[in-house]
Amino acid sequence: MPSTVVVGGFFGDEGKGKIISYLSKKDNPSIVVRGGAGPNAGHTIKDGSTTYKVRMLPSGFLNKNAKVMIGPGVVVNPDVFFKEIQEYGVSGRAFLDKHCGIIEQNHLEQDSKGRLKEKIGSTGSGTGPA
To answer: Is the pTM of this model over 0.70?
Structure first.
């Protein structure tokens, strides 16, 4: 089974999400998987005149035939994940790997104040502490 892997090499903001959304429609894959850290970075995707902003779902969710999966090692904010499933209509085709971490309320609190926020400019998403 052929596969395409898109990897960024410049610390984010390379346009991976836009490339993946394009390829997911052009190549019509049966599965689109997101790897990486967690909801600390988002993707803005345009489809015609509609703009989508995702933080948890893979950018290839626009392909209605594809299963969308979150890969092992990604930390997941359940609130963000389930909101995006509902908002973008991917119920029944969204899956989490059993080796994903879960961002809990205490992770959000740790990440929103103190050293992490002040020293490194954390996004406050809970990804680092989780």
So the answer is: yes
